[in-house]
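re the bet — no i am not wrong, look at it urself. input seq straight from the record:
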Amino acid sequence: MKTWFITGASRGFGGLIAELALERGDNVVATARNAASITEKFGERQNLLAAPLDVTNEDQGCQAVERAVERFGRIDVLLNNAGFGLLGAVEEASSEEVERLYRTNVFGLLTVTRTVLPQMRKQKSGRILNISSIGGYRASAGFGVYCSTKFAVEGLSEALHAELLPLGIFVTVIEPGYFRT
């Protein structure tokens, strides 16, 4: 049995993977800005901890990790799934839109990773799964700013892989193409 810590677990890939892990009998710390949406989606379960988490809020991240370890004793898998897209030409995106996108897709991923890593280091094991996109290695018109955040996720994931491998912590970047969940 593994313990999963999943960001953006209320829908999309996060929701799907949380559902599959719960069905397998794994423990799941399912996070979302609105934790009630997790309970509405999955109900009350012994192997589920619904935790509020805005990935841009480091204090919430620390609290969620603390509650996870208190409840399940460890975190085996971190799934950095929270994120969103931005469609439009690069010159059309406002500074506020760009900053919000980077705060969630890049800095949020970093914040959550940094809050979970001390536990994985202590365990001397773990797996970090970072959801990127096909846009993480190939940009296209109308997706420039979004793709730039995913390029950042790719670079961070490659560096983390090299830094953490000697510690028994594995990092994988997942690059889905176009999909519908």
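see?? DSSP finds five helices and six strands in the chain. told u. also Helices lie at 12-24, 35-42, 58-72, 95-123, 144-164. so pay up
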